[in-house]
Amino acid sequence: MIEKDRILRLQEIQIENFKNIGKGTVTFPSAENGTFYEGHGEIVGIYGQNASGKTSVIEALSLLQSMLLGISISSELGHYVNKESTWSRLSFQFYTCYQSERLLINYAFTFEKGKKEENGSGRIVGEELKYKNLSAEQSFRTILAYDANLGKEGLVTERYYRKLIGGEQKNRIKVEVEKQRAYEEGRSVLFSEGIRTLVDNNFDDPVVKSVFNSLQFYARMNMILLTNRDSASATFNILTMQIRHEEGMRLTRGDFFIPTIEESFNIPEEEYSMFRSIVEQVNLVLQKIVPDLSVRVFELGRSLDKDGKQQVTLEIVSNRKGVEIPFRYESDGVKKIFLMLNALISVYNNPSVLAAIDEIDSGVFEFMLGELLAIMQKGAKGQLIFTSHNLRAMEKLNKESIIVSTANPDKRFMRIPNIRGTNNLRDVYLRTVDLGGLNEEIYEPTDRYAISHAFRKAGVKHEQK
Fold this sequence. Notes:
The chain is an alpha+beta fold and 465 residues long. The protein contains 13 helices and 19 strands.
């Protein structure tokens, strides 16, 4: 059970041996200055050259969400491990508060490459969940930790393990079964259904229970991740809408997957009113961002699906000054904005919502993007983390909100130091890219003449064919 007024926010991401990142840390401003939460929203924008680890941060968050929800990720884990290593570790710190309770929560997991014949799969080999009560000035306490290399002793932390099994042999067997199944299926042990049931039934510490409940609720309801796959799907007329919808006391989270928007599509009748409500909500903002543009749901009819349940046939239509056209003919930029707006609306209004958007600038007009981010910086309650190549945000956001990737894989992310209030961060960044001057190189230089020669050489080879 989650307390209605409980707030949970991401503070820090630590990444080790993950894709092209040897070591890297991404922190929100409140974690950087030790305030944790001051009643307003936070933004982190990650900038850097191509293939410098920006998208890896969004992918790390995606793996976190799957782990907290107990979803299997084994088939893809091996591809995430750095080529120089056999293992990766991701660690996340959260801050949560409710009434007088203030906690820091750390959750980390380690995974290894699978065997060569397993074609990119991997295995979760370690997890650790701990918390620190800031109100009581405690040090971190480990609730449960899992180490696959310990075999039957894989769930460590004696104090809480005894509470978990409650002195019953059947619970001890249940734990062993859950460990084995989770290992084989490549998912979390600590957040498996069986372990969660034992926590709910046998733990008498309300703080420990709230740690588990808060993290799972956060992953299920308050994490909204928009990856390049979502943008690509819009480009190819496959629209996947990640939605978070609040109406009164009812909170709904999920995806509306529209196989193709070249033709009409069907949705269950019980989801129809919510879908219309979400589009109306998005329209309130869309009309202010793109003047004279609105999107509406056009109902074409009703029928029964193969199971005999009512479904509604729809088409998404855009309207410009009274002229309606199928939404599929809109630009990729408009589609990207349409996909993002529900997430941004949620971040603007709820302090516990995290939206992570990869390449937020893709197809979006530079000036509009800057204004949108400035509005979010000033008025949002939740958290937004994004990657981008467009530098307009550097002129609109606080310097604490900008993180840059470096050319050093063992210190992959940093904030630009010594920025004065009168400095233009965009100018400082471009000058640093060109001339250097920081402790870490933030751009791996390219040779214009070598590139030009490569173009000529490629053309000669093409002619010879």
